[in-house]
Amino acid sequence: MCGIVGLFLKDESLQSELGSLVESMLSEMGDRGPDSAGFAIYRDPVDEGEVKITLSSPEDDYAWDDLAASMESDLTVSVRLETYWNHAVLAVRGDERAVLDWLRSQRPEVRVTSAGTDIEIFKEQGTPEEVSDRFGLAEFQGSHALGHTRMATESAVTTEHSHPFSTGRDLCLVHNGSLSNHNRLRRKLERHGITFETDNDSEVAAGFFTMKLSQGLDLEEALKDGLEELDGFYTFAIGTKDGFAVLRDSFACKPAVLAETDRWVAMASEYRALDHLPGASQARIWEPEPAVVYTWSRA
Amino acid sequence: MWVDVDLEAVGVRGLNERLHAISAGVTDARWRIRNPHGLHNIAVGADSPVSLLIEGHVGYYCAGMNKLANITVAGHAGVGLAENMMSGVVRVQGNASSSAGATGRGGLLVIEGDASSRCGISMKGIDIVVGGSVGHMSAFMAQAGRLIVCGDAGPGLGDSIYEAEIFVRGSADDLGADCIVKEMSREQREGLVSLLQRAGFDHDPSDFRLYGSARNLYNFHIDNAASY
């Protein structure tokens, strides 16, 4: 099954409430996915010349200060560090590739959940209430967010198999459904230099869109290509640095509801996750059509 | 005299238990259901001629298995609206998600807005009137009853249809397997007029075309009867 949610704020005065609104959306989708939960938040862009990296550790009390200090001395970079339960967000003034290479070789026990200037991804096993609570989601401010509650069907229940998935800068994807051509597509994408952390089908979809965007396509064009090349059932919600998109496959077996007001655009697997949003009763509410790309952007 | 029922106070199960406890023969109960918040399974399994007005959007399977009751949703409805309905009237003032009226055996389902994919899938005698359009694969394997669409029908309309009748006022460009345009008899036209009237639409019946089964699929050949 799985539940997905997304909230894209148009009204900046709502940004202080983003976390609490998304927390309620996620917990409403707990029945659709009690195995693990995760969310991506776009907020606090780092300064020019800095990269923001979110890391996840299997240990609750990982020595993040030590990691930051070692990175600073090994790479002669400066690092700002914030920790949230077993995740940490690093703002590093330095070369992104060098930082990621260093993490892979020096700290292989730590996983990179996201990289970019705005994005932060937090995900862990447990119900959405537990996961939101441990990360303190309700306190988060930001411009847009995506979330996922997972009921595992095609791969294991682990943190790294949890959504959202990110394979490119400031890009993330949440997925309800199952892809049938992900193994072949993964091999093809790997030949184009996309790297994958897991055997999960949804990560392949994220990698596919990353490749398309890196080839210069805009989000809408990338999603249209997805309709041609991704085989299976899907409702996707996709976040970029300043955009938000929703796409359903042409059979539209997996549910989705969109709602829009002057202040926000939201999507969820079921309407009940949107009902508490401010002004929901006056929102324009509709079901996204099969094989139609819906995008919003701040540009 | 309306009785107010607050779903926040009694919960979906509380409402449905009260609905099931109404004794046979009660005909004048009128309930106003507040705070539905898109919850699933609201007013499922009614079996008395009670009138329900649900004030807001409902989730999945609202008014499922309805018998005798007259249920109005002042909002949108989620997946599986009035699934397997037996009799009575269910009306949705907004739109309905996929599989509205699925497997319905009787009664009247009115969706004033649009219905999504698979509207009337495997319908077995229910009458469905949609004020707007229906999505893909509507009336798939429809066996009996009537589906009236005042707007357009999506791809694959009436695929593998049996004896149900489909009336479409707008376009129906992509018909499913074995579904064809048919001549409308006088009785069928009178039935259409009567249903439109009951549903509250005043469209000209001559704007509608009738679609039904060509009876060419494997199961319609008498030589294959022994296989069933």
Summarize the amount of helix of chain B as a percent range. Answer: 10-25%
The profile of the biggest β sheet of chain B is: 11 strands, mixed
Taken in chain order, the helices and strands of chain A follow as EHEEHEEHEEHEEHHHEEEEEE
Rg of chain A (C-alpha, Å): 18 Å
CATH class of the largest domain in chain A: Alpha Beta
What does this structure look like?
The complex is a heterodimer of chains A (299) and B (228). By secondary structure, chain A is of the alpha+beta class. Chain A folds into two domains: 3-40 and 126-297, Aminohydrolase, N-terminal nucleophile (Ntn) domain (Glutamine Phosphoribosylpyrophosphate, subunit 1, domain 1, 4-Layer Sandwich), CATH 3.60.20.10; 46-117, Alpha-Beta Plaits (2-Layer Sandwich), CATH 3.30.70. Chain A has seven helices and 15 strands. In chain A, the strands form three sheets. In chain A, strands 7-2-8-1-13-12-14 form a seven-stranded antiparallel β-sheet, with helices on one face. A four-stranded antiparallel β-sheet of chain A has the order 4-5-3-6, covered by helices on one side. Chain B has two domains: 1-81, no CATH class; 114-228, no CATH class. Chain B has two helices and eleven strands; from the N terminus they run βαβββββββββαβ. In chain B, β1 (3-6), α1 (7-20) and β2 (30-34) form a beta-alpha-beta unit. Chain B is globular and about 55 Å long. The model of chain B has no long low-confidence stretch (mean pLDDT 95). The A-B interface holds A 251-252, 255, 257, 270-276, 281, 285-287, 289-290 and B 37-40, 56-57, 59-60, 76, 78-79, 94-95, 97-98, 116-117, 135-136.
